[in-house]
What we know:
Blueprint: H1 11-14, H2 17-33, H3 37-56, H4 61-82, E1 99-104, E2 109-110, E3 114-126, E4 129-132, E5 136-142, E6 155-159, E7 162-164, E8 169-170, E9 174-175, H5 176-181, E10 185-191, E11 197-200, H6 206-225, H7 229-240, H8 248-257, H9 267-281, H10 291-308, H11 313-330, H12 337-351, H13 359-380, H14 387-413, E12 417-418, H15 421-444, H16 449-474, E13 480-481, H17 488-507, H18 510-531
Parallel strand pairs: 5-10
Antiparallel strand pairs: 1-3, 1-6, 2-3, 3-4, 3-5, 6-11, 7-10, 8-9, 12-13
Amino acid sequence: MRNQQAHTWPVFRYVPVFRLLIPFLCGLLLNIFYNKIYLVSLLLLLLLTAIIAAILLPKRQWISGMKYQLLFLLSGFYITDLNREIKWKYHFSKYKGESIVAVVDDIPDEKPKTIKVAVNVIEVDSGNRGCKVEGKLLLYLKKDSASLKLRYGDKLLLPYTIEEIPDTVFGGRFNYKVYLERKQIYHRAYVRSNHWKLLARKTTSPVVDFAYTCRANVVDVLRSSLKDTNDFAVASALLVGDDSLISSDLMKAYSASGTLHVLSVSGMHVGVIYLLIAFLFGKAERNKWLKHLYYPAVIILIWLYAILSGSSASVIRSATMLSIVLLGKWINSRSHIYNSLALSMFIILCYDPFLITDNGFILSYLAVYGIVYMQPLVLQLYNPENKWMFKIWELTAVSIAAQALTAPVSLLFFGQFPNYFILANMIVIPISTIAIYLTILQVVVAPWHQIELWVAYVNGKAISFVNEFVIQLTKIPGAVTQDVYIDVFQCLVAYIMIFSLTDWIEKRRYSSLLSTLICLAVLLAKSVVVNWGFRI
Length: 536
């Protein structure tokens, strides 16, 4: 049943976390796109003025509210500056030496001629003197038998051959240097064979080491049982988020069909894992005493899976939100889903403010919000009496809702729209969900080789069907609309139009219909002006 309060205005009354999140986001974005020293002074002056006004005029509630808005805006700005590693006092770029000591901070990525991996620099050596430092470095090692054995947590001794990331733009839109800077990587190093040394294995957190060891073992099991390269690559992506071996043609097919989210571990995958845990151990949730073991255990398992799958922005978002929901159920409080979404975003961005610029992070939140907000409205448009037809329509409504909220940003980032996304998701999501469970079963029954081969055979057939389906679907004329780029202004207007139209459909407010028509007129006018060679 729909939650009517979810669509009641004012939204701040029912989702108070938004009161903190919105100014906090504004502070992050101001720092990322307009990082000026005098701006901090201006914000501090405004905050001081609001505090004095709140003391002198205590009955003016809006002034008191402004005080807290400015405080969180300034907090967002300051937290972003704290996370800008290049400004840290002990960043390795501020020191010179003959060699550096670094720890592998990611899963090594195998390229045709090199091994590419992000490392944390922990020491710079100059002669007989070592200096403790910090900061991330993008490392390229020549591919050989030694570099192929690198694992997360390995400690390396490297020559000091560091250079700044060059300013490289791909396709006229994607700036690789800016992309890396927002991941706090400002430098790179190329190291030839026999010019580096492995100092120690597994020097990081035992929990993370355990998760990455499990990940490597899972990949080995899948590689040995799934002989087809694409089947193995997709199974690996479905379970642990490793999509590095998927061919570019197959990746393009998934992207053009609107089902690329299946290959990147996200909310759907976390949900599938949670449903499996709930199915196996759900009875403990209803026990007065066992629930105090059940909820912490589920949260731990979800986070282990998040680490196992590579800790992408979308899976961290999903794990954080699900943890907040489970904590709420544990203490017997019913948290509003929008509060859970907003709070999870707030917590994640406090840890890494630069995720606000990550495409996957943005699309992930928009998709979830679209499903929560718009799916009930879309579901009401058609009410089939047949149970199976209703299930199909329910899945279709989810795809429409998610696509509606992500479409403007997708056009802004990628300039393409999958026209057959409804058909694609109706087929791909159910079968890929089955494939995830089969892949888990493969890993579980790995000690029993004959059973594993039977499961692998069925799993391979399911994955092959999905792969062939998306490839053939994208060959149909009109499968994808390409090169339809919009700018930030058009993207914002498009969202205002979507929410206005949704509100009109639900509440039949004349003002919402008028707002929708005005937004449509603005978008048409902008297109006309741009086609005439002008810019707004």
